[in-house]
Amino acid sequence: MTRRTQEVETAPPLPALTISPEKICFIIVKAREFDAKDPASEPDPGSNPSDDMGIAVLEDHGDDPVQEELVSFIDALSLDEQIDLVAIAWLGRDGTGRDDWQDTRREAARAHNDRTASYLLGMPMLADFLEEGLSMLGLSCEEFELGRL
């Protein structure tokens, strides 16, 4: 074995996640739908959706089914899955890396409370942060997205 071969750096091993990449990818897709909403132009629309060409579905109303689905999905995750989800979002937001996974996860565990869904949905660019965090861990949603087409 040559000296050069010995000097090749290896990436740290992929951390063991308690949440599956498929669940994270589902949250990314739904978060993009949620983020795409415009502020409500009419707070109390009473017209028939066919009369206004269904535009109300693109506006952010309090009873948003996408938000309700995301909140239900995140709330149904186990404690460890919620901690991993927050830690992955933080990795993507802060631009740290796989080397910082254990510290980031420990901090997410310390900060955990019963408001994980509302915390994450209040985070601007959640989908981008989760996608970037997955990428830093050597994962992607490419296969998940191909399966949805």
The CA-CA distance between the termini, in Å, is 47 Å
Poorly predicted ranges: 1-8
Helix content: 55-70%
Structural Rg: 19 Å
In what range is the share of β-strand residues?
under 5%
The H/E string reads: HHEEHHHHHH
Mean pLDDT over the residues: 81
- Whole-number count of domains: 1
Q: Shape, please?
A: globular
**Strand order of the main beta sheet, please?**
1-2
Task: Output the structural class.
Answer: mainly alpha
Give the number of DSSP strands: 2
Question: Helix count?
Answer: 8
Largest sheet: 2 strands, parallel
3D architecture notes:
This protein has 149 residues and is an all-alpha fold. Helix content is 56%, strand content 3%. It is built from eight helices and two strands, in the order ααββαααααα. Strands 1-2 form a two-stranded parallel ribbon.
Short description:
The protein is an all-alpha fold. The protein is 56% helix and 3% strand.
Which helices and strands, and how do they pair?
Layout: H1 3-7, H2 21-35, E1 38-39, E2 59-60, H3 65-76, H4 79-94, H5 101-111, H6 116-121, H7 126-136, H8 142-148
Parallel strand pairs: 1-2
Helix pairs in contact: 2-3, 2-7, 4-5, 4-7
Index terms:
single chain; mainly alpha; two-stranded parallel sheet; 8 helices; disordered N terminus
